[in-house]
Specification:
Blueprint (H helix, E strand, L loop, with lengths): L1 E8 L1 H4 L6 H10 L4 E9 L3 H12 L4 E5 L10 H8 L2 E2 L1 H12 L12 E4 L2 E6 L3 H11 L3 H8 L9
C-alpha cells in the first residue's frame, strides 16, 4: 500500500472561499493504485508553509501530491518550495505531464510543476484545476508504484 499526503495550495481554498475539487479528485484517482491518503490539507500560497508541510509529510508517507500554485502568477510558489526541499529531481515526470498537456492546450508549456525525491518520498506538483489534475495524474499514475519501489531501494531490474 502506498501512503500519500495531498496538499492543495490555494489562498481562496484555505479561507473556505472555494471548494477543493482537485484535492478530492486526486483522492479518488489514487484508489486505482491502492493508495491510502493519510494526510490532506489546504494551505495558502505561502512558500514557507508549503516547505514546512513538505518536510513534515516526507517523514511519514511514500508520496506527496500537491495541487495548485504551479503557474506564473506572483503567488504561484509551489515549485519553488518543492525545489528547496527535494534532494533530487525526477524531471521525466514533469516532462511527461507537460507533454501530454500540450496535446490539449498550448498553455501547458506555462506549467512550472516539478517532481523530485526527498529522502524516500516522491513529491509531485500537479496543476490546480480539476481538468488539468485529471489529465496530468492519468499520465503518471501507472508508474508511481514502480517509482516508489525504486526510491525505497527495490533492487529488481527495471526492464519490462
Amino acid at each position: 500500500m502506498i501512503t500519500v499526503a495531498v496538499l492543495t495550495l490555494s489562498d481562496k481554498g484555505s479561507k473556505g472561499e472555494r471548494e477543493d475539487q482537485s484535492g478530492l479528485l486526486i483522492r479518488e484517482m489514487l484508489k486505482s493504485i491502492d493508495a491510502e491518503v493519510r494526510y490532506y490539507e489546504i494551505l495558502p500560497d505561502e512558500k514557507d508553509q508549503i516547505k514546512e508541510k513538505l518536510i513534515k509529510y516526507s517523514k511519514g508517507v511514500d508520496l506527496i501530491l500537491t495541487t495548485g500554485g504551479t503557474g506564473l502568477s506572483p503567488r504561484d510558489v509551489t515549485p519553488d518550495a518543492t525545489l528547496e526541499v527535494i534532494d533530487r529531481q525526477v524531471s521525466g515526470i514533469a516532462e511527461a505531464m507537460r507533454s501530454e498537456g500540450l496535446k490539449k492546450t498550448n498553455r501547458a508549456m506555462l506549467s512550472r510543476a516539478v517532481a523530485g525525491v526527498r529522502g524516500t518520498t516522491l513529491i509531485i506538483n500537479l496543476p490546480g484545476s480539476p481538468k488539468a489534475v485529471e489529465e496530468n495524474l492519468t499520465v503518471i499514475l501507472d508508474v508511481l508504484p514502480h517509482a516508489i519501489e525504486k526510491i525505497k531501494g527495490d533492487p529488481s531490474d527495471c526492464a519490462v
